[in-house]
Design goal:
Distance between the termini: 36 Å
Strand content: under 5%
Structural class: mainly alpha
Radius of gyration: 16 Å
Number of strands: 2
Largest sheet: 2 strands, antiparallel
Shape: globular
């Protein structure tokens, strides 16, 4: 798994150790590495995960997760996607969704605060008051528009994992994107 092409083309899944790390935080992973671990779902390749880390080196992050036995990768022969494959109406691709937003520099501090409050309020509404403290802390500590957009990925993943959240996700995402 040290070959660059393998790391970016492999699809990653969490190991039992990776699942345990999400629960216990025993390995002291950096917030970005932990975020990538949370996003690993057995469907995204290293190349797809790179969209969530900004300028950070996805290969180094994946190598760290592999070295700590939090994830395992498998090479996948991927078929070429159709040129104009429509996105699911219920579950938009997070990468495409974020790419469609205005540049981060175009968002004001007031819009950032509105986005932050919206995400925290929806988490508390869907999951119960302070039920997802780690996610709320991630959102609260996010700096600037870029930080909030990274927090959005965790927010969206949590919403997708809950029946009520998944049902309301398209509506909530649309409202959030007005200020994110």
């Amino acid at each position: 798994m040290t070959d660059e092409l393998t790391l970016t083309s492999a699809v990653f899944t969490k190991t039992a150790e990776g699942q345990q790390e999400i629960q216990k935080r025993a390995l002291g992973l950096s917030p970005l590495v932990r975020r990538v671990l949370v996003l690993i779902d057995g469907q995204r390749s290293g190349e797809e995960l790179a969209a969530f880390v900004g300028d950070a080196d996805i290969e180094a992050i994946l190598r760290e997760l592999l070295d700590k036995h939090c994830v395992e990768g498998k090479a996948v022969a991927r078929k070429a996607a159709p040129a104009a494959a429509p996105a699911s109406a219920d579950k938009g691709d997070a990468t495409d969704s974020l790419a469609s937003l205005p540049p981060a520099s175009a968002r004001s501090a007031n819009e950032n605060e509105m986005a932050r409050n919206f995400m925290i309020n929806t988490v508390n509404t869907i999951f119960g008051q302070n039920a997802r403290l780690t996610l709320i802390e991630t959102i609260a500590r996010a700096e600037g528009t870029d930080g909030l957009r990274m927090a959005f990925l965790s927010w969206q993943t949590s919403m997708e994992g809950d029946r009520a959240g998944a049902r309301r996700l398209p509506e909530l995402r649309e409202k959030l994107f007005k200020v994110l």
